Amino acid sequence: MATRFHHRVRMALRSFLRRPAAERELDDELQFHFREMEAHEATRGSARAEAHSPARRHFGGSDQVKEACRDMRTLRPFENLLRDLRFGARLLTRSPIFTVVAVVSLALGIGASSAIFSVINAIVLRALPVDQPEQLYVAQVARMEQLDPRFSYPAYQGIGELVAERAEVAAVSSIQSMQIGTAGSNDATAESAEVQLVSGDYFSVLRQHPQIGRLLGPGDNRTLDAHPVAVISDAYWSRKFGRATNAVGRVVIANGTPMTIVGVTTPRFFGTTVGTRNPDMWVPVMMQAAVHYASDMGNINGDSQKPWPPQREISWLNLFLRMPAGAVPAVSEAMTLAMRRDYAQRSGYQDDAELRRHYQSSRVVLASGSRGLSRMRGDLTTPLLVLFVMVGLLLAIACANIASLLLARATTRHREMAIRLSIGAGRQRLVRQLLTESLLLALIGGALGLVVAYWGSSGLLILVNDGTPVTAIDVRPDWRVVGFALAVSLSTGLFFGLLPARRSTHVQLADALKAQTRGAIGSSSRVGRRWLGGRLLVAAQMAFSLLLLIVAALFARSLQELTRVDIGFDRDRLLVTRVDPRAAGYTQAQLPALYRRIVEHVSALPGVAGASMSASGPFSGSHWISAFEAEGYTRGRDEQLRVLNEVVTTDYFRTVGLTLLSGRVFGPEDVVNSRKVSVINQTMARRYFGSKSPIGKRWSYDEEFDEEAFEIIGVVQDARSDDLTAGAVNMAYRPVTQSDDYLASIEVRAAGAPAALAAEIRSTLREAEPRLRLAPIEPLGDRVVRAMSQERLMTSLTMAFGGVALFLACLGLYGTISYAVTRRTTELGVRIALGAGCGAVQWLIMREALTLVLMGLIVGLPLAFLATRTMATLFYGITPVDPAAHSAAVATLVVIAALAAYLPARRASHVDPMRALRSE
Fold first, then answer.
1. Within 10 A of 83 (CB to CB), how many other CB atoms are there?
2. Is the pTM of this model over 0.85?
3. Four-CA torsion 526, 527, 532, 534, nearest 10 degrees
4. pLDDT tens per residue, range 71-102
5. By the 8 A CB rule, do 780 and 569 touch?
6. What's the DSSP call for residue 285?
7. For the purposes of burial, counting CB atoms within 10 Å of the CB of 761, is it exposed (0-12), middle (13-18) or buried (19 or more)?
């Protein structure tokens, strides 16, 4: 049995690969058998000349015998597929306009969906490029229905010892930009680079090996400030050192601290953070204070001015664990018990029953770390899914459009199909051949769609990143993207090809064969019913395009409302920039004098109405949020009080434009030895002091309202933070004269146009403080615009998708009405001959078009109502049934559709009756 199968496979492959030779052998073999049959007939008494006819009768038709032999010797289904593909390709080349329109529509639809899927794949789906990523887990503390992924360094050490027999543990900080220079160069040559602090076992947990040199190990992470070594990325090695092997051993200056490069990572490795920035350099955690790392930390009564690693109160590290999946429950339980014991041992927790219950209910959750950590993932997952669904609808509209074109094209092939059916072709065979044509069209569109996806995904990331190219995220198509594009191509091919294929083969043979194509179509009573499918497709396109237009209009209205938000600051006349005094080498004792000099130098410039400094600055993306207690306010059960802290110079409120509502602002009397004072915003005053004046009341970081508590001396208007959609939050301002927090933001209020001052400010500060490096000086309005980047992205893309959908739907309407006019040429000629006016004929056609539009509105409006309700959280200041958005979408659809239908209606009103009747 196996021998026969192998023999047949060999014969099939030989027939396919060496077809001419196989055909010659088949002819020779059949001739031999026919001659043998003639000889056999001759032995039965027939003359040689007379033996031919009975031999032919017994042998059968030569073509039928050849086909039977080919079926036995060849891969028949595969050959049929190739034959259908060749035939379909010839038909497509004969209709270049149809082919180009269909392929471009599919390429745009499949390309757009593949582009968004590429970004989803890169940010949401793709695993880290490390060995066995499925064994990686991220530790998070679940507390009060919130997850906090940050741990202190002592907690990391304790967890490592606790689970040493079951798992490997590594710690990693968030990414921070630092000034990196080379040894022996001046500060002016330093460049910004992305730095991440890691534990000594970070690279071993991720199973990484050095490209050159070595990676960090446990020995590099034992003593504070005693391990000035760094590992650089392959990209930084190429960009900064030209891939020179002597880069290992070179000394670089990271925020003023010399660091020796000991190794380079492999090209594919980018760490464990998925975002718009990849680390250029990895530094030991113990070097935190030396390199002035100060980013993304949680502080519970710790001292942020002292080194962080020894402090259990400062949480700033993410923990990655490597272990088999079966060990996860036991490790999670052990970590939870250890964390609760640690809380119980801290001072203060035993005395507060509510606080003790709160922390004792916390638990450790181990989430999959195979895809790394990503804030971008959380921010963009929902918007990307919305865009993905919208692109799917856009692709459905394109498919419906192509199906309409195929239905119209099929009516011109009825006679061809009738002839093929009459000479023996089966309906299934014809349907298969027509579907092959559709699939060929879809595959060509899909192949071009991959090209569109490659460029489109990069462009989408640029939009996400406010116009800046993103190299940190690899959106090049991989096997998952190619598979998605192939699946979408095949699905769309079946979607738009099945109905036309079935309709094309259901013809009345007698009518089709005895009439010319146009006459048969015009006289057939079934044509109207057949074309009903085309009308329904157009109505569906109208419904889907209306849905997309409504979504786009809602996002546009939401963005409009967001731009009207009062941010509290004077966005029109305020310039902002950032500095890092500690990275420039200024000591803590030098900082107060530095702040005074900066404010004085900038304030003295012509055109400057005021200058100030603050710790974070408006819309900087960097804030310090802490727990607090308000004097006289009783917290509810499980209520947590949070305040956003800001440390400012004396002229801050006047400079940024915050209005004082009651009390006073900071003055020269507020010094380090005087009582601690604070100014709060009106939201904090209203929430915790009600209708009473908060002036003279106190708030504290703990429950003790002693000399460490802050007396409220003033209330200022609310100012928005980075998230414009979140509303005002509790905010407390403290004077820099009573704080050792360092200030990193400079605010300048311009008397006139702010843009002209930027160069003067930079020049003045460079001359006065040459060691100090300034970030770009920009108007506050630019930061506010960036804060709306997601809303602007969604508005731009949804409006683009809505516009394309409307264009495709109206194109389908135009084609359908144009075909209807062509089909009814004789009828229109008769009407005009009997006295119908141009207006009446135009209204006859327009009524048919507007009926399709009305059908789309009837279906599309309820569909939009249901769909937009699921997106309500993405809109700001409006509801999903916003009248202005719905009215604008409906009006746009009706007007554009009417214009599309008017062209064939106008042509119908100018039909020549004599020519129309003569052609009939």
1. 12
2. no
3. 150
4. 655 556 666 667 767 777 777 787 787 788 88
5. yes
6. G
7. buried
